[in-house]
Amino acid sequence: MDIFYPVKLLADWLTFGLFAIAPETLLGETVNFFIYDTVKIFILLAVIIFAVSVIRSFLPPEKIRFILSRRNKYVGNVLAALLGIVTPFCSCSAIPLFLGFVQAGIPLGTTFSFLVASPMINEVALVLLLGLFGWKIALIYIGSGLVIAIFSGIIIGEMSMENLVEPFVYENTVIAKTKLSEMQWHERFAYAKDYTWGILKKVWPYILIGVGLGAWIHGYVPTDFLAKYAGADKWYAVPFAVALGIPLYSNAAGIIPLVSALTEKGVAMGTTLAFMMAVTALSLPEFMILKRVMKTKLILIFAGIVGAGIIFTGYLFNLILG
């Protein structure tokens, strides 16, 4: 059973019961989506930030830095991207780990390889793609995601933009005051609670704005909109699909049913894969949260590099599979 089923029940009760909005209406779908995704994101962020903070209390920054920075800087990008595959987080909930990597002294480019790979490449989506479309599409999906994540991180790392990250991200004073080996469990939990609350206080307005825009698009953009304007015969189909996918919010597994529906409506496979990658790796809620931890210029560079990689991949797959 879906672990967020109680959240769905809450969203249904608030939308259709307390607010008395009629089901199967555009307003009902929009409000229901907004409540469900807002509560889900806050739960995910709180749980993941807390858990990662506790884990970090056992891992000296030097050890994490050694694992992801050894041999040469490009190996770190590959390892971070591979780590992203086995951490099935959405784009928003991957950000706490991204913050932890930066605070541990891991190069910025390496952390971006993880930030791209974690939401874009999902093992659940891989299994679903394998079952729906076969091993060829599944391998193309995971291979292209890895290439985009690795090279996006390498390019950002070469540009040396650490000054575009907000100063508070580099602060890690709580652990510094106590030797890791001497921390008791209650101290680790206290640190994790304070760190979690501190991050949530900084990002909550951006979550509400991002999810709100995504909910509006979810409710008011017709299901056939993408299929109509991004058909296989349209030269602009891939960039259009990527642009449309950015305001939406979902993880890779959640977007698979829509991918299946789009292919059935005649949208080319490369276009649908590009749409899925944009939804999972370039979501608007993610940008709204990142706005609190980095400068707008870095967000635009990140989105531009990843977006260009996704568009190229979409065209390439349409050529290969066409």
Strand content: under 5%
Helical element count? 16
Helix content: over 70%
* Shape estimate: globular
- What is the gyration radius calculated from CA atoms? 20 Å
Which structural class best describes the helix and strand composition? mainly alpha
Element pattern in H and E: HHHHHHHHHHHHHHHH
How many domains, in number, for the residues? 1
Residue stretches low in confidence (pLDDT < 50, at least 5 long) are 173-178
> What composes the largest sheet?
none
State the total count of DSSP E strands: 0
In whole angstroms, the N-to-C terminal distance is 38 Å
The average pLDDT is 76
Protein topology:
Layout: H1 5-18, H2 26-56, H3 61-69, H4 73-85, H5 95-103, H6 108-120, H7 123-133, H8 135-158, H9 173-176, H10 185-220, H11 225-229, H12 237-245, H13 252-264, H14 269-281, H15 284-293, H16 296-321
How would you describe this protein?
Helices cover 75% and strands 0% of the residues. With 322 residues, the protein is mainly α. It is globular, with a radius of gyration of 20 Å. The chain has one domain.
Task: Kindly summarize this structure in a few lines.
The protein is built from 16 helices and no strands. It has 322 residues and is an all-alpha fold.
Keywords for this structure?
322 residues; mainly alpha; 16 helices; 75% helix
